[in-house]
Every structure is written in C-alpha cells, then in structure tokens.
Design goal:
By secondary structure, this protein is an alpha+beta fold. Helices cover 20% and strands 42% of the residues. It has a domain of 63 residues. β6 and β7 form a beta hairpin. The chain has a four-stranded mixed beta sheet with strand order 3-4-10-9. It has a four-stranded antiparallel beta sheet with strand order 5-6-7-8. It has a two-stranded parallel ribbon with strand order 1-2.
Length: 201
C-alpha cells in the first residue's frame, strides 16, 4: 500500500487465493485490477515492467530446475530492456540442515493487538535433493479459545555457484549477488542471497 500511495504503478501476483483475499482487504476496490492469482512459472500480465521482485524466498518454493528456469524466462518476457529481476534466498545453514529442527519456538507475539500467536518450526532436510521439509505449528487466541493448526511446506535450498549457473541457463543476465538487503558484500557472515538479474538488449 505504501508504494502504491506514493505513486508506484505496481502490480502483484500470488498463487494463493487466500493471500490475494488478504491483500484485497487492504486495497480500495478500484485497485483490485492490480492483483491476480497466477503462478510465477506461467504468469501472463500482458504488460512489461522495469522491475520485478520475488521477495520472501518465493523462489525457494520452486523445487525443480525446470520450474526455476520457467520462472526466470517468464520474468524475462515481462521485463522492459534493461529491466531488473530481484529475488532473495536463505544461505544454507549447514549445521541446521544436518541436525534439523524439532519443535523450535521461533515466533511469540501478537497477530492483532491483544491476540497472541506462537509459531513452532520443525525441519528435516533431504541433503541429496537439497529440499527442506518444514512443518509449522501455529498456536493462537481466537475469542478466548486457544486454537492450533499445522502447515507443511517444502523449500529448495541453493548454493552460490548453483545460482550463477542457473541464471546463466536462462535468458536473464546475472548482475550481482549481495549478502544483505543493503547491498552488502557476500561473505561468511551473510545470511541471505540477494540476487540481481537484468534483461539486457
């Protein structure tokens, strides 16, 4: 909303109808045309952009090389010449991947004022196929009743030169990989890959 309020001509897609509905609750109805339920591998917005971003590790949900290349090339088709594609990935924590996680509390706060939310995370990794199998358990207050729900997802983890080779197979060109959101150098202390790609003429 902030970018839109400041005049950005911004559009968004998500594969989840539930997430689209949450976004619609935050937008005036006249702006609904800006958001659609579409897949990053196959989306078609019939327009081109100077910048496309896939934040919050969206790319880690693409488990196969085929899906990853389809996404990169679909983004390429939606960029203006000289346009950029930026996406972020976790840098693999090798100790965590080896040992896994077992019911670790990683969030304890409120989802609305006065309404508590706790999240527990469990994870075991398939090291050969580079996939983390993750289970989130949510515990929250709703009308003074404690509720729980589990959600499972798989995430692909990537290494630096794998990213470079992957982009090299696509139509995009790799500009840089930073180690944080402030364009810091990628080094042993980095926790994030911030990948900058470009559609060159």
């Amino acid at each position: 909303m902030e970018a839109l309020d400041q005049g950005a001509d911004i559009f968004g897609i998500d594969i989840s109808p539930e997430m689209i509905n949450i976004l619609k609750d935050k937008l005036p109805e006249k702006e609904y045309y800006r958001i659609q339920i579409q897949d990053i591998c196959t989306f078609n917005l019939e327009r081109k952009f100077d910048l496309i971003i896939a934040p919050f590790r969206v790319f880690m949900h693409l488990l196969t090389v085929d899906e990853q290349l389809k996404a990169l090339d679909t983004v390429f088709e939606h960029l203006n010449p000289g346009g950029n594609f930026i996406f972020d990935l976790f840098i693999p924590n090798l100790k965590m991947l080896h040992e896994g996680l077992n019911h670790v509390k990683d969030f304890d706060g409120e989802y609305e004022p006065g309404k508590k939310l706790i999240r527990y995370t469990s994870m075991h990794a398939d090291l050969v196929n580079q996939i983390s199998h993750i289970t989130f358990k949510l515990v929250w207050d709703e009308d003074s009743i404690e509720k729980t729900e589990e959600w499972k997802t798989d995430l692909r983890f990537f290494f630096r030169y794998e990213i470079e080779h992957l982009v090299a197979q696509s139509k995009l060109k790799l500009v840089d990989i930073f180690g944080d959101f402030e364009e810091g150098e990628l080094n042993k202390n980095s926790k994030e890959f911030i990948v900058i790609c470009e559609k060159q003429d």
